[in-house]
Design brief:
By secondary structure, this protein is α/β, with parallel strands linked by helices. It is built from 4 helices and 6 strands; from the N terminus they run E-H-E-E-H-H-E-H-E-E. 37% of the residues lie in helices and 26% in strands.
Length: 138
């Protein structure tokens, strides 16, 4: 599993598109703001999951840790069957939102990202189009 993380509009999607061209030829399915179904996972497909804010938002009434475990667990289950690339937008940047819901969203996404990064084979931070490998080999 790959985790590509960086700020908004820092070139993460473009980097992933270039990365995919160097990988084994598989059907690539983009899941923007949604999770693929576990039963859909197939070894001849690759899933690119992004817009975690949209995935997390409906669950903000639950505890952060609970939501993070459910979402990360779902992704990790699929990653045992097929290739996963997660595009994660760093929402923190040291700014604490004033609104409670915005803080919850930022914190819950951060907890999801922590679990994904801990379990990923490769973690790459993209800063303005430049990849920096944090975990795994180039």
């Amino acid at each position: 599993m790959y985790v590509i993380i960086g700020g908004a509009y820092n070139g993460k999607r473009s980097y992933v598109d270039r990365l995919i061209t160097t990988m084994e030829n598989k059907e690539t399915i983009y899941c923007d703001g949604s999770l693929p179904e576990i039963i859909q996972a197939s070894t001849n497909k690759r899933y690119v999951i992004s817009r975690f804010e949209e995935i997390v938002k409906p669950y903000l009434h639950l505890k952060e840790e609970e939501v993070a475990s459910q979402i990360a667990g779902h992704i990790l289950t699929i990653s045992k069957q097929t290739e996963i690339i997660c595009i994660c937008t760093d929402m923190s940047r040291g700014v604490v939102p004033l609104e409670k819901e915005a803080r919850q969203l930022r914190d819950t996404c951060g907890r999801v990202y922590q679990q994904l990064c801990q379990n990923a084979n490769t973690v790459i931070r993209v800063w303005y189009g430049i990849p920096q490998y944090l975990k795994g080999e180039q």
